[in-house]
Amino acid sequence: MRNPFRQLFSFDRNSVRWRNFVSTAAFTARVFLSIGIALFLAFMIQLESPMSTVTTVLIVANPTVGALVSKSVWRMTGTVIGAALSTAVMAMFVQSAVLYFMALSAFVGLACMTATCLRYFRAYAAVLTGYTIIIVAVPAFAHPENIFLSAMMRVSDVALGIVVTAAVFMVTSPRRRQGTMDALSGAFRETIRHALVFHEGLMNRSDAQDVPGSEPVGTEGAFRSLPQTIYDGRQRLLGQLARLGPAIEYAATDNPDIHAGVRGYRLAVSRMTGLVASYHPYWRNLGVANPLSAPVHREIRDTLTELLALTENAGWIERPQGVLACLEESLERLEVLEGAVTSPAVQASVDNVRDILLQLRETVLDLSSPRGPHVRVRVLPYLEWMSAIYNGLRGVLIAFLACMIWYITYFPTGPMMIMYVVAASSLLSTAPSAARASLPMAIGTALSVPACWLCHIAALPRVDGYPMLWLSVCACMLPGVWLQFHPRYGVGAFGYTVFLAMQLMITNSMVPDDITLINTWLAILMGCALLVLVFRVIMPADQRLYASRLVISLGRSLQSLSARPAGKVPSWMVWEGTQIQKVSILLMRLSLVASPIDRQGYVDGAFAALSLGRLLIRLRQAVEPAGLSAHEREALDGALASFKTLRRDPVGTAASLMAAAGLIGADEASGMEGLYRVRLVSCLEQSAHIIDSIPGFFHADGPLHLWYDERGPATLVAVNPAR
Prior knowledge:
This protein has helices at about 1-10, 15-45, 50-60, 65-90, 95-115, 120-135, 145-170, 175-200, 230-255, 255-260, 260-280, 280-290, 295-310, 320-340, 345-370, 385-410, 415-430, 435-460, 465-485, 490-505, 515-540, 545-565, 570-590, 600-625, 630-640, 650-665, 670-695, 695-700. Helix content is about 75%, strand content about 0%. The chain starts with a helix and ends in a 25-residue tail after the last helix. It is mainly alpha-helical and about 725 residues long. The chain contains 28 helices and no strands. Keywords: Membrane, Transmembrane, Transmembrane helix. InterPro entries: PHBA_efflux_AaeB/fusaric-R. Pfam families: FUSC. This is FUSC family protein.
């Protein structure tokens, strides 16, 4: 029994555990200070519902000041829009309760759908619009003529909570630009290390040099046969890059320097994600196919090793000349190697390595000159419409059910149940999986009921002044605030704190009413049951279906890319940026699929699809300089047209590509035409090899598109379902 207590109180001040404890304690202290000031001011200016300011503090509080500011701005925006809509809906349907409930449900569903489509805290404006409508309307159900006054009081509560929280956190929280830049530099170095592992294994063993902390990749083995440590490292790096996106957005809100170059930093993160996606098990197949490419891999191995040494110092981003010079010199040496290339197999390695070096150079430019003229690319966010529509339908259903339950039973605190289910469903619409998060949200809310009971029987009757009231409220909310950003308990802790504040009902002149309090608890518990019923039973999430739609979308993007005229091929960065967003969502969906599925195969297949798109764009760029004859051009057009059958016959598409490569490669040419002809053939052969490696990924009857209990011949993405 002594060991746990000894471990609890014997922190190493340099350990991660100690730093996490200190940061959590500091965040909790700031939240409680904000609650104390906001609640005191609400009492002083006689707001009708002072606990709404506490709820606002709990929702907008964030350890990152930029995130807090962004969340506060969008919360205020959503509150104003929701208050205006609530007033308008009440005015239009005041004579018909059922029509009012239908209109309310429609607006809640629309808000949930919009919140699913938007990113970061912009989605929070839609969330607030949805549940502010019902929060404003509840006090005016008995007296509709007071709806405007209720709207103004809600806006006042939210504004007070936002101003107090922002002031406290901005005064007490350090804000440094260097933290964001260090994170970007660290991600860049990790990306280089990830690439270095592959090139170490794809060159001759005798010339390979050991890389500390890495495991060399052999050249033997088939698709999806990388060591598990490689997969784990890739997943960890992708998670690190995914977290960088929101961190940059929040830092840009608070820091003018970051804000001025935010587009460049976004592009840098997108390019690094693309670089990670470029390295998948197909590199092993490529190494087996062209063992003569060892000098190419040796060249980039030496370049990457030198880059790690050049980026060791923290200030390399401000002084990138050495890094850029190293990349330029490597590109020049690569051109010399390319001049001696006569085999399309070796040219494949040269082209892929050149792409990597160019992407590294562009990433360095994005980091060091984020406002430079080269930052013109704008990657639009990918909208997952299917998930958005499903969340919208859930919002409509749960809001209408709650309203009709209250309308039929006339339960005294039924409006509290409506308020809870609308707020909870709106908040869940921003979660990666609303159905999965609904149960922790309901459990956390249910746990707030006994906490509220303890507060009312043990703390509030003994309060004789504001300091005691503040300490009592903070003591009740401590567990939720402390665990709010814990990866495992965050959703439940958030539901506990926010809806505990809603239940406490502390006002300027409190009159104990046990019957109303008990009815409120029953309404909250009924709302929890209804939330789980709708999200987990009536409309459960089908993660397998969501994932299959994303795989289909990746295949259709390749089909669209192959069918575009040469003059209308999109920018590589624009196309890849959209597909990377799909792949990121796909990784999350696959992790939630409960039925047996070849998850690793689909992840590698998605990355290989990105490489296939890169090859198609590179192929288009080489067509005109290659000087193809009419017969060869016809064969190439036929090979590209075969992408129309990619979902029905991927093996046939691969065969068409190989046939075109054989025809074009049979005619030897000299000079630049010959070089571009070799590039063209290498792109066709690589594309064919990728499709042949994962036919089940592209096929419409692939394993992901079948029901989990459906028996079929395709169990792996490497198996062709048509056979």
